[in-house]
Amino acid sequence: MMELLNRAYAALKEKTSITPRLALVLGSGLGDFAENMDVRDIIPYDEIPGFPVSTVPGHSGRFLLGYLGDVPMIAMQGRVHYYEGYSMQQVVLPIRLMGMLGAKVLFLTNAAGGLQDGMQPGDLMLIEDHISSFVPSPLIGKNLDALGTRFPDMSCVYDKALREIILKTAGENGISLKRGIYTQLTGPQFETPTEIRMLKKLGADAVGMSTVCEAIAARHMGLRVCGISCISNLAAGLSANKLTHEEVQETANRVKDTFATIVKASISAFFEQNELAD
Ligand code: HPA
Asked: Distance from the CA of 195 to the center of ligand 1, in angstroms?
């Protein structure tokens, strides 16, 4: 795995001279975020050896490297999902690569079903913690000692200082932000109402099919992590609607400007803080 990563890293290094300080994963609804960036290099995933290329035709995805204001960053336009049939180690390869390129902060975004009382489709939720127990760990297998320790601590996955900056930034921009616990399930099927009742009892506020494995791989490497979910629908059984991918996309699309604003303003605020300056 480390040889694979090193080969992919070398290929990526050849295609860009930017050393990103921040890595951003663009979930549903943030696909247009690149409009906010001064994009210098576009690297399609299929140009990187060993990269898990999406099984959905025309959706292979790509890395965007450039600047947000004066912050050098890398964004993933299109992520890799476990339900596509890749191993968890393959799913987190892009996250590891962004860390190897130099990113110190990982900003995760996604669309999710909402479980918390009072949630409405279109709400944004700051991720405060996660439940990983329903998906295999991306750290299973021989430990990659070059990246991190065998038994990494997960007592504060979502960086407290970053969370505080995001909440403050939301307030300053008049954006209301829920807070809660995100759970990753494998998918691709949506949950049953009974599964949602179970997840609710376990303390979950949002459910989706990504993000948690990425956060774990990033913490393993020592990256600081934060994340926001777009609540695209109420989870199964909590509304009269059947769940569809179209509803997820429609809602994500409706709130994309607000979502982009909070992400953009938060990133700028992160790097105004001395502790993040290097
Ligand atoms: N469940 C799982 N994943 C999702 C959902 C959901 O309700 N909405 C968006 N992604």
From this structure: 12
